[in-house]
Amino acid sequence: MSSSSVTNPSVADETLRAQIFQRLHPRVYLERFIAEKIRPDGRTFDEWRNVSVNVGSISTADGSALVRMGGTTIVCGVKAEIAEPELDRPEQGFLVPNIDLPAICSPKFKPGPPTEEAQVLSDRLNEALVASDALSLSSLCIHPGKAVWTLYVDCTCINYDGNAFDAALLAMLGALRNTTLPKATYNEETGRTTCSRKTRSQVQLTRKFASMSFGVLDTSHVLSDLTAFEEPLMDVTLTVIVDDRGELISTTESGGAISEDVLLQCINRAKERALQLKD
Amino acid sequence: MAQSANDRRRINGPEESFPPIFDDDGEDIKLKMQRSRAPGDIRPIFLQPGLISQANGSAYIETEKTKIACAVYGPRQSKTTTYSEKGRLNVEVKFAPFSCTRRRAPMRDAEDRSIGVAIHQAIVSSIRLELFPKSTIDVFITIIENDGIEGCIASGSLAASTALADAGIEMLGLVASCSAAIVGDDIQLDPSEAEARASSGTVILACMPALDSITSIWQSGQVSADLSLKVILSD
């Protein structure tokens, strides 16, 4: 910044003015880009940011994944604990997904209890994992009616640059796929469950899937993979979850009304993207 | 018990759950205590500033198993309405739920606060707070993986100081910090969790190498005054 201001003061001046304009009139700033068929970060409307997934880097967790989606960084760790099952579901374990958006990840979050946004995200993630039936809860049974595994799937956002839902779901699935459980035996005489340190087995996921989020501006412009700047300016946001065979798992839409064409366009883009992610 | 049962702001699991009990517990703890480094060697450090794009400054530090992310926001306007001539430094430490051997409930407890205070002490005298009247500098630290509280405080201070420099906040010097454990008559630098547990005392030293001055010393456990000074010198 400082070197450019010395050599070419007008360019630095222009960038500063653009930054001020972006802060004061975000909507107009975005609309000018949209009119030129491009987005502020240089992507086209249907372009996704680069995704990288790094699994198993945290040794204190039973399974872990770190997902980067453009600037958004989310770490997810799975901790397995043993609990007594519910009386009416003696063979089912528990899956407890939560996401935390701490003050570290963005200036818009303050320290303290989970924000409304984090609560909604946790609930949507829980619903996605339950709706997809990716993990059969009965596979978490150690001894019916006595002991089952509880998987605490905790996500922490380190850097928030939009589209946390897609990144968090990817991190949760990556971490679950990476999770191994020690072989546990329930002793009926003592009523204790002990685990062996030597043999561990993988948690079995029944299907592979991913979520894709979109934003709609002015009823016709559909943007994929929103950044933190674009997210609050959208009229409608849409999330489509599809599995690797192109089957729909869930679609959620929030905000104003959209036409059927837009919805279909999103679903098709999601299917395309799901096939890309599979490779 | 892993989580308070009536926290309606989170997805709750069963009322009670316990970490797994292993059949060979106690046997291999002795094995873990063996140290592969020389007493005066520290663990390799990976330190990278500027990974968190939303923050004014940030740093990520990794010393073998310990992984810590740190972000600096500010200087920004203080929330309190009382006028203060000096800036305020606010350090908050958070453990990720999966960062320790036992799962941590996502509630703040005394441990993260005490680490926060220790890091605050280590870096506060290096910052020129008199230049920021009426403002607050927020330092947020997330411990992603924890391998010894002493190591967390030492690398946390280092990361916080780096992040402050990355944010362009005026300081008198960078803070470097190191921990040491006393095992028998030996002084082991930068102990891991198992090593610190086996020790009779620990010392954490933070200093500004550029000014050749010490910013904070934390000593705990049973250590004689002479030995403690020796540890400080070897730090």
UniProtKB/TrEMBL annotation, chain A:
Domain annotation Exoribonuclease phosphorolytic: ranges: 47-182, 210-272
Predominant place of localization: cytoplasm
CDD domains cross-referenced by the UniProt entry: RNase_PH_RRP43 (cd11369)
UniProt xrefs under Pfam families: RNase_PH, RNase_PH_C
Subcellular location: Cytoplasm; Nucleus, Nucleolus
GO terms classed as biological process: exonucleolytic trimming to generate mature 3'-end of 5.8S rRNA from tricistronic rRNA transcript (SSU-rRNA, 5.8S rRNA, LSU-rRNA); nuclear mRNA surveillance; nuclear polyadenylation-dependent rRNA catabolic process; rRNA catabolic process; TRAMP-dependent tRNA surveillance pathway; U1 snRNA 3'-end processing; U4 snRNA 3'-end processing; U5 snRNA 3'-end processing
GO CC annotation terms, alphabetical: cytoplasmic exosome (RNase complex); nuclear exosome (RNase complex); nucleolus; ribosome
Entries under InterPro entries matching the protein: ExoRNase_PH_dom1, ExoRNase_PH_dom2, ExoRNase_PH_dom2_sf, Exosome_comp_Rrp42_subfam, PNPase/RNase_PH_dom_sf, Ribosomal_Su5_D2-typ_SF, Rrp43
GO molecular function: mRNA 3'-UTR AU-rich region binding
Keywords carried by this UniProt record: Cytoplasm, Exosome, Nucleus, Ribonucleoprotein, Ribosomal protein, RNA-binding, rRNA processing
Top-level taxon of origin: Eukaryota
UniProt record similarity statement: Belongs to the RNase PH family.
Protein name according to UniProt: Ribosomal RNA-processing protein 43
From TrEMBL, chain B:
Subcellular localization: Cytoplasm; Nucleus
Pfam name, any one: RNase_PH
Gene Ontology BP terms: nuclear mRNA surveillance; poly(A)-dependent snoRNA 3'-end processing; rRNA catabolic process; rRNA processing; U4 snRNA 3'-end processing
Region (Disordered): 1-25
Gene3D superfamilies cross-referenced by the UniProt entry: GHMP Kinase, N-terminal domain
Record field: compositional bias (Basic and acidic residues): 1-13
Predominant localisation class: cytoplasm
Domain of life according to the entry: Eukaryota
One cellular component (GO) term of this entry: nucleolus
UniProt-recorded Gene Ontology molecular function terms: RNA binding
Residue span(s) of domain Exoribonuclease phosphorolytic: 42-170
Family of the protein in this entry: Belongs to the RNase PH family.
Protein's name according to its UniProt entry: mRNA transport regulator 3
Highest classification ranks of the organism: Eukaryota, Fungi, Dikarya, Basidiomycota, Agaricomycotina
